[in-house]
């Protein structure tokens, strides 16, 4: 079954990432009108998502654009990463781990500079799948078709053999347009069932693949 492939998104799929309200809290703390942080930082966020700016430069822009001192930058960045990294979707992660050796496994994630180090330290996604393709490392974000091409190339698989899982419909549609099968993540049960169907594991969709 190694010719089959499953590629997953991270945020909202392998990570549970509800909004924490950190932006609003910082705007209140700094006496800024609502929306100011993202308005002033929008081009920096976009640059960081495709690797056109370093993490150190992001910190410098936060300081200059929001009027922060070094300690405030450190605290704001910690709040940002707390929301970004969320908490692990343990059920889905355990299911994917049980697929190791039965199919090729990959990750394709729109990301931000500095995230590989943090997600590796916290979640060890590098041990869960064979290859992780981050947008900030390839300079391309979903739903650009080249992002899906890069993910398939990293695993040396044809798009038609892959099932892509994402929590944004636009990315699911783009994956389908790129020749992949795709599933919109809404909950673990339906996602696990869809993966099981893709791998032809029959009606036992709620549990891991039988081993052996």
TrEMBL record:
Membrane spanning stretches: none
UniProt cross-references to SUPFAM superfamilies, sorted A to Z: HAD-like (SSF56784)
Family matches, as Gene3D superfamilies: HAD superfamily/HAD-like, Putative phosphatase, domain 2
InterPro entries to which the protein is assigned, alphabetical: HAD-like_sf, HAD-SF_hydro_IA, HAD_sf, PGP-like_dom2
PANTHER family: ALPHA-D-GLUCOSE 1-PHOSPHATE PHOSPHATASE, FLAVIN MONONUCLEOTIDE HYDROLASE 1, CHLOROPLATIC
Protein's recorded name: HAD family phosphatase
């Amino acid at each position: 079954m190694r010719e089959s492939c499953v590629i997953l998104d991270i945020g909202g799929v392998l990570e549970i990432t509800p909004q924490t309200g950190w932006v609003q809290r910082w705007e209140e703390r700094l006496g800024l009108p609502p929306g100011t942080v993202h308005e002033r930082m929008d081009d920096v966020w976009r640059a960081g998502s495709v690797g056109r700016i370093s993490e150190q430069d992001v910190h410098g822009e936060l300081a200059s654009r929001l009027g922060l001192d070094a300690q405030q930058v450190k605290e704001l960045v910690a709040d940002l990463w707390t929301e970004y990294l969320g908490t692990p979707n343990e059920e889905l992660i355990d299911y994917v781990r049980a697929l190791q050796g039965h199919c090729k496994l990959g990750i394709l994630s729109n990301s931000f500079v500095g995230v590989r180090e943090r997600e590796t330290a916290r979640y060890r996604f590098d041990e869960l799948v064979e290859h992780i393709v981050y947008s900030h490392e390839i300079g391309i974000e979903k739903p650009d078709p080249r992002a899906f091409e890069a993910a398939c190339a990293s695993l040396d698989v044809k798009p038609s053999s892959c099932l892509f899982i994402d929590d944004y419909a636009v990315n699911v549609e783009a994956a389908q347009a790129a020749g992949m099968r795709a599933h919109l993540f809404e909950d673990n049960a339906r996602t696990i069932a869809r993966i099981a169907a893709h791998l032809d594991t029959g009606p036992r969709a709620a549990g891991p693949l039988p081993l052996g």
